[in-house]
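I hope you will forgive my troubling you with a question about protein structure. I should value your view on which stretches of the chain appear to form regular backbone elements. Here, with my thanks, is the record as I have it:
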Amino acid sequence: MSFQKVFGTSPDGSWRAPGRVNLIGEHTDYNDGLVLPIALPNRILVTASKRDDGRIAVASSGQRGVIEFAIDDLAPGSVGDWAAYPAGAAWILRESGYPIGGANLLVESDLPSGAGLSSSAALLCATFVALLGLRDLEVDPAEIARLAQKAENQYVGAPVGLMDQMASMCCTEGHALFFDIRAMSTDQIPFDPPADDLALLVVDVKAPHRHVDGEYAARRKSCEQAAAELGVPALRSIAFEDLDDALARLSDDVVRRRVRHVVTEIRRVEDAVALMRAGKLREVGPLFTASHASLRDDFEITVPELDVAVDTALEAGALGARMTGGGFGGCIIALVEASAADAVLSAIEKAFAEHGFSAPSSLAATPSAGASRVS
């Protein structure tokens, strides 16, 4: 799609923001825990030109037509569908006092939507860096991530955490982002599988997301209920060494299992970071597998497609595999010897055909840099 053809003017620049995949640390973010995402090479690209009439026009290569709105008229709910994301970015910038003036925005993507790779956060972050970049406004990447979270929470109405936006803004090439939600601190952890003759496979199992909103809310409520019952601000406050005592104080078995997942998952993130820092990447694999078992048995958010993909990857020689993302669909990741990558993918495809599942798709998960200007 030509920017000139859509808007009748030449662009002033292009900005990109990547999707992400979380290596380990699932459903720990709203428990003040630890997460370890990487940015993907797949991204949302926003090509833009300045306007000075206080209006923003947005178009997408995947949608028909142009949607236009006045910045001063924006309020939560005033723009819907996919355009709510760029509208939300403009609204938050206006509310925060940034003089963005107006813009034409063309959105393009090679990031699969609905796969749990955070295309919504990437769209928001790409819009933020484009609108700010057009006016040569320099804002700290972590602050942009916080603004993007506010836009999704307050304008779009999605109760998301901060991990996706931080990954899209703050990741660096060849590293995983060690993000401590309670401390609001980040650290770059070396993670470069090809340097160790390894590959990280991301496989979209193409399962329809089942009851995601209600189930997500139920998991979060269970964690909050447990924290209140245990008298702590969040489950992060429960030390791994004190887990058995904490579980014994809980009356409900379902809540007990939810707590066990969160506390052990936080420990697995700590162990994974220690191994990566020591250059022992192959030893991270079993932590992935243990994470999946916990998500399947204690947090109960896997579906047959995810379980079959993980089990098949392990049977085909993967060093470790797990579901990643919110669950009930989405993707798995598998850490494999580079020489075995094709065989593992073929085995998963064969297993899916035998089970009558939709054919999966895969992409290369090379740890990539966060949002930036392209041209």
Remarks:
- The chain has eleven helices and 13 strands.
- The chain has two domains: 3-191+369-373, 193-364.
